[in-house]
Design brief:
Elements lengths: L3 H18 L12 H22 L2 H26 L9 H8 L1 H8 L1 H21 L6 H20 L9 H8 L1 H12 L26 E7 L18 H8 L3 E6 L7 H10 L25 H8 L2 E5 L9 H7 L4 E3 L16 H13 L7 E6 L17 H4 L11 H24 L4 E7 L6 H7 L6 E7 L3 E4 L4 E2 L3 H9 L9 E4 L1
Parallel strand pairs: 1-5, 1-6, 2-9, 3-4, 3-5, 8-10
Antiparallel strand pairs: 2-7, 6-7
Amino acid sequence: MLDSSVIWIALGGLALSVAIERLLVPCPSLRRPLASWLLHGGAWCFALGALYLLTGRGLFSAINVLAAWLLIVLVSNSKYHSLREPFVCADFEYFSDAVRFPRLYLPFFGIGKAIGLAVVFIVYLGAGLYFEPRDSLALSTSAWLLAIGAGLLVVGHRSNVTATFEASEDLRRWGLVACLWRYFVAARVPVDRATLESPFAQPLPAVDSAQLPDMVSVQSESFFDVRRLYPGVKPQVLTHFDQLRGEALAQGRLQVAAWGANTVRTEFAYLSGVAGTQLGVHRFNPYRLLARNGVPSIAAALKRQGYRTVCIHPYARSFYGRDKVLPALGFDEFIDVSAFNESDKAGPFIGDCAVAAKILQRLQAQPRTQPLFIHAITMENHGPLHLEQVNEADLPTWFDSPPAAELRDLGPYVRHIANADRMLGQLHKTLTESARPTSLCFFGDHVPILPDVYKALGEPDGDTDYFIWSNWAQAQCLSQPLTVDVLASTFIKLSQTVGLPHARQVRCA
């Protein structure tokens, strides 16, 4: 037997779930394929049936499923506001990350909003369990809901549709449930590594290890030449950056794989040499599944050539699963936040200058018989920048005149950019004085999240900046725009040709 009241609750809740979905930005079309509606209805019935089986309370279960659905919609809209991308299947793991690393996530959703929703949910949870009695027909009714839900999901899944993996476009065409479902399924299809077309799949040319230079790459958090966005930033904020660009073997604008966040997209593109268009659904978080099984990379290629490979990232080693991913990508050693202390902080996170000191410590350690490849991923400039304050007296150090109120987040950002420049000054000075050939690749992973600033000044195009410099070669190099997936192979080519002692001068076009 079935409880007819629960059937009406199920139908009403299904209609409300569609209404809630209409709040999404971008808003999905109602004229979507039948398979998408089947997946939406199937997910609703299955989720409702599962919770109803657990609690025995129909109305309570429906409201809880709708509340979870509304939360996903609100999170998606917050993400789209900050990152120009809606919620995707890979983002579910960020709910647990938000508990482990709340500062990195909750402020973008809204701390007050998160606390308010949590309190309301706890009150409702107690009230619902107390005031709504258990339904005597819960077992049979929930079994029907589960069966209907499973049937709709199976039929909807069988539809032959192709994802573009352009999240906004797929969301508009299919709706959120179908988009999440298709992406979840696609993520579990085995990937043929040969189709990734990594330049590091083939061995590098054999070179006498005694002739190989040390190689250092620095992936700078949220770095780009902010003077393009706001000319009121003083040129001397990036003095060392400008000097190194002037001496570089190659430099210019860098088209990266992320906008505002999702550092690992740019990180993986750099390390693997694989363009995002080759990754399918894994473009959203290549570290979640793909990279953990090993992918050709610059670290693995240099390791085969005789290098010792070291990664430095001054944050928790488990974040993004780097403790598992980086060894799989060929790194011999991973130095995380435990190697630093509180005095190394510049704001909430470990400062760039402390990272530079750690790089130089490794380069100068004696004795050693192998050349070093060090890849550093900085953390200092990680948002949320709107939580930070700067001393008004410091603003003239960075700006020609104090920024307007709507540009206030530029203060913390430029302060950190100035520290990134100080880091470059440390590296430049020490490497210039070193007798050992060393090359340096520096680049930004993505532009920062500064929504109020962008509203006033306009959004940047998303490109960051890079340079490749050597302490042996002298170059007069024209600007060379690159995509991040070719940056590492370019770095090797320049480091192991013009970056060696026998080639002190080079002109690159």
